[in-house]
Amino acid sequence: MNHAIRIRESWEDRLLLTIVYVALGLVTIAVAYPIIFIISSSFSSSSAVMGGKVWFLPVEPTLYGYSAVFKYKQIWTGYLNSIFYTGVGSTLSVALTIMMAYPISRKTFVGRNIFVWLLLFAMLFSGGLIPYYLVVRNLHLLGTAWAMILPGALSIFSVIVAKTFFQSSIPNDLYEAAQIDGCTDAGFLFRVVLFLSKPVIAVLFLWSAVGNWNSYFNALIFLNDASKYPLQLVLREILVVNNVDTSSMSLSAEQLKHFEDMKTLLKYSVIVISSIPVLILYPFIQKYFVQGVMVGAIKE
Amino acid sequence: MVKPDTARLKRRILRHWQLYLIVLLPTIFLITFNYVPMLGVQIAFKEFSPVKGIWGSPWVGGKQFNMFFTSPFFWPVIRNTLLLSVYALLIGTPAAILLALAMNEVPSQRFKKVVQMTTYAPYFISTVVLVGIINIVLSPSTGIYGQFAHLFGIDQAYDILGQPKAFSSLYVWSGVWQETGYGAVIYLASLANINPELHEASKIDGASRLERIIHIDLPAIRPTIIVLLILSVGGLLSVGFEKVFLLQNMINLETSEVISTYVYKIGLVNTNFSFAVAVGLFNSIVGFILIFSTNLLARRYSDSSLF
Predict the structure, then answer these.
(1) Of the ranges A163-177, A241-255, B258-272, which one carries the lowest mean pLDDT score?
(2) What digits encode the pLDDT tens for the residues B32-54?
(3) Which residues contact A50 (CB under 8 A, 6 or more apart)?
(4) How far is CA A60 from CA A35, A46, A70, B113, B270, in A?
(5) Is the pLDDT of residue A220 over 90?
(6) Facing A13 at nearest CB: one of B38, B124, B209
(7) Residue where one domain finishes, among candidates A45, A61, A77
(8) Which residue in chain B has the smallest CA separation from A96?
(9) What parts of the sequence cross the membrane (chain B) (predicted)?
């Protein structure tokens, strides 16, 4: 089919295509512009930002905003906490997902339908916020790092995605062959399934990691000690509540004088800094998220 | 059941004991964090006392529900919740479909890739940062919005953030900015699955681009649209807590208080657990009725449904 049928485009079609190009161009600019504006402002001087002189590129480039971030201890505590919660939480989450999805993907697993129904039922119904909170409280997890890791660890949606993947891409023949060679169920999981499932494991890990990194709600309701706050909760104080705590920053009198300027710039730079991990991962994330969306969209 | 069958069943279970061991840990999580909270729903019908606990607190029947239905917050909260979610649904779904259809028409792969990568990116921005960006960009004094107003000779730009009336639009359009690129992916995938011969054949028959979009592309993605619509209708009453809560302030509270933020405040801030659970339960029941009736309608009037 190298000689695709070529029919001269009518003026109508060319007009439509032009409109599509222009519209997509405008949409892309509209999406990208606020981000560019924030990044450029974060590298500009506070007088340029306050004076409305920043349009596209940084004006009077300076790293003042970033130096303010470096002095803000609470941001770094939050950063480290978030790395910890994201790392441990996502690893646990992927492990639990596979441990649930693998058995129920096996035909020889008696009672798999019971588990599938338990999962679907839990997807449709939930106890709601307060009973959830009470469970975490009764387990004495309130105020501990565990409250950030355990309650949300099992994602039912991920389990269903993983189960679909195992069923559709790991042939039953392979299992039977392994069984004849003396491979046990657990052995098959560790020696065969995990190696054949790298793409879906990557998807699950990224989902979980992005979710953990961006979440603030569990921290809001379960934590009360600022030293355990994840980054997003610190950001909420700065960006939304507009509360910048200078006591931890050890500022000189000179710097205190410019406090208002610094507070403005701090907001721009902290947005950039907090988004860096996701930004670095973006090419991978994008690729795998698209795959994940597809796998998740497969209807049984 | 006949005896030999049970024996065989037992043998089968025993032979795969490892699978049961593996599934044990996630099952404990499922029960603890999904099923135990469901038992807690009973406190909607009780007068919860922290000393007596969930099981020991006395039953009071539908008292909490009556209190909610007669409370002055009932209608505003329901109205705000419905308004926000219907508005978001009516704008968000067509936006994603339009973006996918438009990208599908573009012959240049490179252009398409740039558009997709850019529109997809905001999905990964956290809600807190998104609200931070909204506050910064829409500031009438220092934001882009204020700068543009100045450019057009308006000295005192209209303060969008301080307007209760503007809250719903702020919520919906920031959502469009953040989620349209992500939402378009799934439609793009179904568009890519269309047999190219369909397009070739209709070209020969003299169909224009627009006609092909209407008669080939749209019908092809209809099942996807319907399934996603059913899912969203089920969530009509559960507008996400995260963004609404962050965008809320004292000024816009009259239009921004939704069921989930109300439950949070009643329950966790004022520690009136029973009342908050009753409100939450009412919310889930209505959501459940909505999702089932939409599914029923979809099954009756089209060939696709969720279950």
Answers:
(1) A241-255
(2) 999 999 999 999 999 888 888 88
(3) A261, A264, B142
(4) 19, 9, 20, 33, 49
(5) yes
(6) B209
(7) A61
(8) B26
(9) 20-45, 82-102, 114-138, 219-241, 273-298
Q: Cα distance from A40 to chain B (closest Cα, Å)?
A: 12
Tokens 């999904």 correspond to what residue? Answer: B34
Spatial separation of the C-alpha atoms in residues B27 and A102, rounded to whole Å = 13
The domain that holds A277 is classified in CATH as 1.10.3720.10
Verify whether the Cβ–Cβ distance B34 to A122 is below 8 Å. yes
Is B144 near chain A, with CB under 8 Å? yes
What is the rounded distance in angstroms from the CA atom of residue A229 to the CA atom of residue A245? 14
Name which of B193, B243, B242, B246 is nearest B222 in CA terms.
B193
Give Dmax over CA atoms of chain B in angstroms: 89
* pLDDT (average), residues A82-102: 97
Calculate how close chain A gets to B58, using CA atoms only, in Å.
Answer: 17
Whether residues A39 and A159 share a domain: the answer is: no
Give the pLDDT of residue B1: 47
Using the 3D structure, point to which of A40, A61, A82 is the last residue of a domain. A61
Choose between A117 and B237: higher pLDDT.
A117
Mean pLDDT of chain B: 89
* B304 vs B93 pLDDT, higher one: B93
Do both A76 and A33 map to the same domain?
no
Tell me which of B256 and A199 has the higher pLDDT: B256
Chain A nearest-CA distance from B53, in A, is: 10
Q: Give this complex's ipTM.
A: 0.90
Range with the largest mean pLDDT of A94-98, A104-108, A181-185:
A94-98
> Which span out of A242-246, B176-180, B225-229 was modeled with the highest average pLDDT?
B176-180
Do A69 and A94 have their domain in common?
yes
Q: Which residue of A has its CA nearest to B209?
A: A13
**Superfamily name and number for B86-301:** MetI-like (1.10.3720.10)
Which residues of B, range 253-292, sit inside 8 Å of A by Cβ?
Answer: 260, 263-264, 267-268, 273, 276-277, 280-281, 283-284, 288, 291
Nearest to B181 by CA among B94, B99, B258, B286: B99
**A135 and A44, same structural domain?**
no
Q: Torsion angle, CA of A169/A173/A175/A179, rounded to 10 degrees? A: -170
Residues spanned by the domain of A1: 1-61
Identify the CA nearest to B45 among candidates B278, B265, B280: B278
Domain count, chain A: 2
Contact B38 A126 (CB under 8 A): yes
- Give the separation between CA A55 and CA B59, rounded to whole angstroms: 62
Write out the DSSP string of B18-70: HHHHHHHHHHHHHIIIIIHHHHHGGGGGB---TTTHHHHSPB-TTHHHHHHHH
